[in-house]
Amino acid sequence: MVSANPAFNNPAFQDPRKTQGATVGGQTAYTPPPAVDVATQAQLEGAFAAPPAGARETGRMTVEDTVWKTVGLFAILVVTAVVGWIWSMSTVTAANPQPNIAPWLIGALGGFVLAMVISFSKKVRPPLIFAYAALEGLFVGSISAFFEYLFPGIVVQATLATLSVVGVTLALFASGKVRASKRATKIWMIAMIGYLVFALVNVVLMMFGAFPAGSAGAFGIYSVKVFGIPLGLLIGVFVVIMAAYSLVLDFDMIQQGVRNGAPRQFGWIGGFGIMVTVVWLYIEVLRILAIARSN
Description:
The chain is mainly alpha-helical. It is built from ten helices and four strands; from the N terminus they run H-E-E-H-H-H-H-H-H-H-E-E-H-H. The protein has helices at residues 16-19, 38-49, 55-58, 63-89, 102-120, 126-150, 154-175, 182-207, 231-259, 266-294, and strands at 23-24, 27-28, 225-226, 229-230. The strands form two sheets. Strands 1-2 form a two-stranded antiparallel ribbon. The chain has a two-stranded antiparallel ribbon with strand order 3-4. It is globular.
């Protein structure tokens, strides 16, 4: 068959039975090399039929291996989240209707310290990443129990919303419709720094009693209404978009690591990064729903 592309009209790309012995421009047309012996043919067929080498065989980072590592970390998080939930609700009685926030504090503080150590360490330390996943699970389970106690059904809503955002972001990234860019990343960094400053100021103001007690000031500046709409809802939408772009950056970095032939153990860093972003997204969605339902 003659290709429509003229580059493939050379006899080298044609059926050798039709071109053998012909002349092209005064020269003998392409003649296929002699057939290889049976042993060599079998070896070649075996090489092509063999499955591609994975992370275990090459010792290099792959997307598939990173996915499984990420799944393993989230499995640890889910198990300890159940522990955190049960621990928090174990103290709820008629005399003491408030959930126990001890696992919340232990998970948040311990997870923050480990996140800093993991992020700035020059070596990949899987045990620390496992410990981080466990502590993050305590935090997520405890804070979920607290909000579920105040707003029944909110955890299911927040979980579905988080999974939807992650799924849509992953689909858009896999299809090539969404990619990280230098300009967008710079804007994201500026917005991220601004949001961290805002959150810190909000915590300080709440600690010093700058907002009324009760549901009216339960979220500090987030509870302030602008044109009848809580500021937390407006900021929350913006933060969810930032978290989604952070996921895009995570996916992009994992692909870059694979292209660079990074050692297999760096897949744990990829899973750690995705876990940090997804937990952040979940907490923000949980807060948005709580603000909406409290109003």
